[in-house]
Design brief:
The protein has 112 residues and is an alpha+beta fold. The protein has 2 domains: 40 residues, no CATH class; 72 residues, no CATH class. It has 2 helices and 6 strands; from the N terminus they run ββββααββ. The protein has a two-stranded antiparallel ribbon with strand order 1-4. It has a two-stranded antiparallel ribbon with strand order 2-3. It is elongated and about 60 Å long.
Length: 112
């Protein structure tokens, strides 16, 4: 399952954005029994694919959209193609991709 893994801190959590999400659980003697939060990661996987640039990931140097570069470009069509290509490489099937202005971006996708 590609959408179930260790979670990262998002805008709804306390902590440093994009850091590992940690919820320390201790037993009766005070020993830590668990800490890393594991759960559904579909939304964070989509966000990470959009944020990272090619060559950012050592083990997969060809993946990443680098969406922040879109701010310096006016070619939304190019980025729609990049998003479709990169999501497909990760096994995500896009059912809706609205990127016709920078004011509103909506991407609905799921793992096949």
């Amino acid at each position: 399952m590609k959408d179930y893994a260790i979670q990262i801190v998002d805008s709804e959590d306390d902590g440093v954005l994009m850091d590992l999400k940690i919820d320390v659980v201790k037993d009766a003697t005070g020993l830590i029994t668990s800490g890393l939060v594991v759960g559904n990661t579909l939304q964070q996987n989509k966000a990470l694919l959009l944020l990272i640039h090619p060559n950012d990931l050592k083990d997969n140097p060809t993946i990443g959209v680098g969406i922040e570069d879109l701010l310096l470009s006016s070619d939304l069509l190019e980025y729609r193609h990049k998003i479709r290509e990169q999501f497909a490489r990760d096994g995500l099937k896009i059912t809706k991709l609205d990127l016709y202005s920078l004011d509103k971006i909506n991407i609905e996708a799921h793992y096949e």
